[in-house]
Amino acid sequence: MIFPTLAHGYIGPGAGFGILTSFVVFLNAIAVSLLSFLFWPIIALIRSVKKSKRPLAAQCKKVVILGLDGLSPHLVEKYWANGDLPNLKKLADNGSYNRMRTTTPGVSPVAWSSFQTGVNPGKHGIFDFLAADRKRYLAVLSSVKTKTSSRRNFFGIKKEEVSSSLLRMSKPFWSLLGKYGIRSTIIRVPITYPPEPLDGRLLSGMCVPDLRGSQGSYTVMAPHGDKTSFTGGIGCRLEQGEKEWWVGSVPGPDGCKPVDVLLKQGKDKRWEIVSGDEGIKVEPEKLSEWLTLCYRSGRTKVKGIARFRVTDGPVVYCTALHVDPSSPVIPLSHPVHYSRYLAGAVGQFATLGLAEDTWALSNGHLDEKSFLSMAWAYYEERKRMFTNALVNGKDGLTVCVFDTSDRIQHMFWGSGLEPGSVIHSMYLEMDKLVGETVKRMKNNERLVVMSDHGFTSFHTCIDFNKWLVDNGYMVLEEGVDTIDASYHGVDWSRTRAYAMGLSGINLNIRNREGKGIVRKAHVDSLMKEIREKLLQLKDKDNSVIKSVKFARDIYTGGYIDRSPDIIPGTSAGYRADWGCVTGCVGSKVIYPNDKHWNGDHCHDSDLVKGVLFTSWKHETSNPSIMDVAPSVLKMLGVKPPTYMDGRVL
Amino acid sequence: MNTLFDLLLKPFQPLHPLWGLMWISALSGIMMILVFKKTSNQHAISALRRKMGSRALGMLLFLESPLTVVKLALGLILDNFIYLWHLLKPMLIITIPFLLIAAQLDARYSRQPLNSDHPSTVTVYWESSIPFDVQEEPEEGVLISPVVTIADSLEQSFSFTGNNGIFVFSEMGIYLGSSGPSGSVCIRGAERSGIIPTLFHPWNIEAPADIIKIESFTQEKNYNILGSRWGWFTVFLVFSSVWAVLGAVIFKVKV
Question: Which residues form the domain of A526?
Fold first, then answer.
C-alpha cells in the first residue's frame, strides 16, 4: 500500500463533487424512472376517465399543426407551376389545399389570435400590433399589458415588481382540449405571452420582450461612436483596453449596470468575445453563437443571451438581449421549466417575439448575408424544438409556428421571387420541412400546414395622418407642419379622426377619446364621408385603397370598442407608412418606400390570403383561419363551443 | 519532501493543530478547485450540465409517458458517463499533488505523540534471523513491555508508554511519535527506501540493513469540533470541500 489509507476515495474537491453529483444524478434517473412507472397507471387512468367524457368520437390520436407565417398561396401555386415544392404538392394531392381567408387586417397578432381562439377579432380583442390608448392618444402594445407594482417583502423592504398580462381575450382551443385530458405542446404561436396555463407545454412567441423591455433593441459599438439611440437599437462607444482588448458596455434592463464585453482579434483573425467568465470565438463578419450576458440589479441576476458580429474597425453588432431561456427572468413558457428543458435539449435559442433583427438590416448595421444567417439560425433552433415536440408528444396536439418565412419575405420581396431568389430558396426549405414532418406522421395522426396570411409587395407608403390633415379631419397646432412622435402638436379640439397602427383610423369621439369632439350622432356620417374620400385616393392612375371597412360591420363580440373605427384595406404595394403607425405626421401622403422592408401583408385582407393544407380531404370552400380551431377540436373528439365563429372543415 | 513541506507548512506551526489543519484544508480546497478550473473543459462541462439538467426536467415534464422518461433517464446516465470522462483529466492531474499533500498531512496530523496513558505497539520484521541480544534502551520515562518473539515469521513485538515521545530502538535510534511543534512529522516506523515509499510514506524512516520494516501502532489523533471528535481526514475533507465550494462560486468554476 503506497497511498494513505483514508485517501482512497478522495480525489480533490472539484472532481469529488463531480463524482458525488454524478452518483446522485444516476440515482435520480433510476428513481424518477421507477416513479414514472409506478404513477403511470394512475395518470393513465385519470386521463382515460377525462377522455371518456369527450362528447364526440375522436377521429385521430394526434393533430400536428405546422404554422409557416406568411406563406403565400400565390407563390406556392407559382412554384408548383415550375414543378417545385413537391412535398406541399403531395400533401395537397393526398389531402386538401385551399387559399385560406385571413382576418381583417391580415396581420399576425390578429390572425394567430383568431387561429387559436376560433373567433373573430371582436371576440378576442386583438385588432393590430398596436392598440389605441384613447384617453392619452398613445399607441400601446395590443396584446400585453405590463404593470409595475411595489410590494414589501418578509423583511419589510419595498420591492418593485413588473408583471405582464395577456390582453387576448377568449380561450385558446388547446385549453378546451386539456379539460378532456388531451395534452398539447404549443411552440412559438404568436400572442401567447405571457404564457397561460394549459394541460401540456407552451413556449411563448410573438410579443415576448427583450431584456430592455422592448420588442427588439440591438446595440452597435464602434471606437468613435457616441451613445445614441435610433429606431430599433442604440449605439455605444468601444474603448481600447489593455493588451489589444477592446471593451464595450452593453446597456441592459433599466436599473442594471451595463455589462462589459471584451473583444480581441486572434492571430487566426477570429475574434474572441468575452463577457464575465464566458467566451466565444467568431470569424470576422460572421454571426457568433449565443453569449450569456449577466446583469445585476441589487442582488438579483438578470441573464440575457445575444449574438455578435464584428466587422472592420472594429464595429460590433450585438443582437437584442434575448431573455436567457435556461434562466428566464420573465416567464417564457408553461410550465416555467419547459424553456429550461428546451435550452438543454436543443441548445440556447432566440426567445424574443420578433427575433430576426429587421431594423438592423434596414439601418445598414447588418448586411443581407448576416441577416439571412441569423434568420436561418433561428429557423434551425425552432426546427429542433419542433422535432423534440414531435418525438416526445405521442398524442394530443402539437403546434409550432415558424417565423422565418414571414421575415424573409418582408426583407427580400423586392429582390425577386424567381427561382434562385432568396424567397424561392426559403419556400424550398419550408417544403423540405413539410416533407420531414409528413415522414414522422403515423396513420392515426393528422397534419395541418397553414399560414396566417399571404404576402405582397410594399413599394409605396401612405401617410394616413397626413391624408387626414390634408382633408381637414386632423388639425395641427399653429406653426406645426409635421409631427415626429405620438401626435405632439395635434390640435385635438379641432381633430375629428386620427390614424394609429398599421391599419386603422379612429374617430375622435366625445366621451370616448381623452379630448374627443365628435358627437355620437355624427359618427355614421363622418365614417361614410372618410370612406368615400379614401376610396378616391390615387397614386398616379392607381387606386391606393381597395376597400374601407367599418369595425361595427365586420366584427362581432364584446371587444369591438378596442378596434379602430375604420379599417382601410390598401391595394397591393401600398401600406401605412412607418410614422403614422405611432402618431407621426409627415410631409407627403404618398411616397416611395425606401426601406429594406419591402414585402408586406397589411393590405386588403382578400389580397393576402394564407394557405391551408390538411392531410385529410374536406369539402369546405373558402375556409377561414377561424375554422382551424373547431376542426381540430372535433377531430380530437371535443365539441366546438358555440361561441366560436369558425366552421368545422 | 518532508523538508519542503516543513517549509511550506511553517506558517501554520505556531497554531493549534486543529486551526493549522483547517487553514491548510481551506487553502488546499481553493488551490484544487483552481487547478480543476484550469485543467477541465469548463465550456463542455457547462453545456453538459445544462443538458443533464434539461433531461432531468424533461423527466418531470413527460411523467405521463414512461417510455419517454426511460429514454431521458438513459440519456441522463449516458451524459453522466460523459461527465465523468470530462472529470478524468483534472482528476488525474490533481491526484499526484493531492496524494503528496494527504501523505504529509497524515504524517503530521493523524497520530498522537507518545504519552503515558496509552501504550503503543511496535513490531519489527527481521530479514534473516532474530538477534538474541536485543536490548531496548528506553529514554527516561519510557516503559517497555517484555518482547514477544515469533521465531517462524521473524517478528518481534513489544509495547511501550512514554511521556517525551521518543523511543530509541536498539542502536537504531528510531524516534516514534513527536513532541515537536504542531504539524511536524510524527515517525511511525521504518521501511526500506525507494521513491514511492519516500514520497508517500513520509512517516517512515530508512530501515537498517537486517530489518525489513518496523511498524508502530500509535494512537490516532482526534480533533474536537463542536463537541464531536473528528479524524484529521474528516477535518480536511469537510473544510477543503467547504472552501472549494466557496472558491467555485467566487472563481466561477463549473463543476
Answer: 458-600
> Is B91 in Cβ contact with A11 (below 8 Å)?
yes
A630 burial (CB, 10 Å; 0-12 / 13-18 / 19+) is buried
Q: How confident is the model at residue B65 (pLDDT cuts 50, 70, 90)?
A: confident
- The DSSP letter of residue A349 is -
- pLDDT, tens digit, 9 for 90 and up, residues A323-345: 999 999 899 999 999 999 999 99
A103 by Cβ neighbours in 10 Å (0-12 / 13-18 / 19+) ranks as buried
Size of chain B in residues: 255
Question: Which residue among A12, A344, A394 places its CB closest to the CB of B36?
Answer: A12
Does residue A563 fall inside a structural domain?
yes
Cβ contact (<8 Å) for A341 and B237?
Answer: no
All residues of chain B having their beta carbon less than 8 Å from the beta carbon of residue A22 are 80, 83-84, 87
Secondary structure string (H, E, C) spanning A134-155 = CCCCEEEECCEEEEEEEEECCC
Q: Is residue A575 part of a domain?
A: yes
Q: Do A36 and B241 count as a contact with CB atoms less than 8 A apart? A: no
DSSP string across A215-231: S--EEEEETT---EEET
Strand partners, B149: B156
Domain count, chain A: 1
| Assigned C-alpha cell, A237 | 462607444
Residues of B in contact with A2 (CB under 8 A): 196-197, 200-201
User: Given this model, what pLDDT does residue A31 score?
Assistant: 76
Q: What number of other Cβ atoms are within 10 A of residue A254's Cβ? A: 10
pLDDT > 70 fraction of chain A, expressed in percent and rounded: 95
Indicate the SS3 state at residue A320.
coil
Handedness of CA A110, A116, A117, A120 (dihedral sign): positive
Query: How many CB atoms within 10 Å of residue A85?
Result: 24
Kindly state whether residue A547 falls inside one of the protein's structural domains.
yes
